[in-house]
Amino acid sequence: MPNMNVVNMAGEKVGEIALSDVVFGAQVNATVLHTAVRAYLLNQRQGTQSTLTRTEVSGGGKKPWKQKGTGHARQGSTRSPQWTHGGIALGPKPRSYRVTLNKKVKRAALFGALTDKVASENLVVVDNIATENYSTKTMVAMLAAVSAAKKTLIVLPAVDEKVIKSCDNIPGVKTTVYNAINVYDIVNADTLILAQGAAEKIQEVYVK
C-alpha cells in the first residue's frame, strides 16, 4: 500500500508512514463486518430484564368467587395473567445474549473496518496527540485542523488522561487505545484518527 501522509495537530504534513497491506489493505467483507458489529452490540446487553410470573406475584391465595352459579367465568386466583396486577405470562427473564466469534472472523472484521476507512479517505494519522494541560479547546482545534467529522474515534498508543479528559466534553468524539479498538467503534465513526504510535503498534501486533 502507498505511504500515507502524517500530519501534526495543526494539520500540517510532517512526514509519511507505510501502512501494511495485511491490516489496512485487506478485503472488506460486509457480512463479516455485520456479524462483528452485531456480536459487539449483543455483548453489551446485560440481560437483567425480568418480570414476575403468577407464582411470584404476592397475594391471590383466595379464590375470587365460587366455581359455579355466579355468572362469571371461573377463576382460581386474582394473580392470573388476565387480571390487573396479575403475573406476566411468558415474560422476559434474565438471560445471556453473549455471542462469541472465532479469532479469524474478529481479525477479518477489524482489518476490513480499518481498510474501509483508508479506502474512503476517512483515516487521519497524527504524529503525536498530546496536550500539556487538560484543554478541550486544544483538542477541538486539532479536530478542526484535520477536518474531522462530528463522529470521530481517536486511537492513542497508550492511556493519556489529559487527552482523554480533554475529549470527554466534545460531542461525538470517543478516545481509546490501540489494543482496545473494536469494529463497532471504527464503523460507527465518520473519521478515524490514529496517533502514529498507535498505527505502528497495531501493525506490530497483527503483522507477523
Summarize the structure in words.
- The chain is α/β, with parallel strands linked by helices and 208 residues long.
- Helix content is 33%, strand content 14%.
- The protein is built from seven helices and six strands, in the order E-E-H-H-H-E-H-E-H-E-H-E-H.
- It has helices at 21-24, 30-43, 103-119, 136-145, 161-167, 183-188, 196-206, and strands spanning 3-7, 13-18, 123-126, 152-156, 173-177, 191-195.
- Strands 2-1-3-6-4-5 form a six-stranded mixed sheet.
- Helix 2 (30-43) crosses helix 3 and helix 4 (136-145) crosses helix 5 (161-167).
- The longest helix is centred in the middle third of the chain and has 17 residues, at 103-119.
- The chain is elongated.
- 23% of the residues are buried.
Short description:
By secondary structure, the chain is an alpha/beta fold. It has helices at residues 21-24, 30-43, 103-119, 136-145, 161-167, 183-188, 196-206; strands at residues 3-7, 13-18, 123-126, 152-156, 173-177, 191-195. Helix content is 33%, strand content 14%.
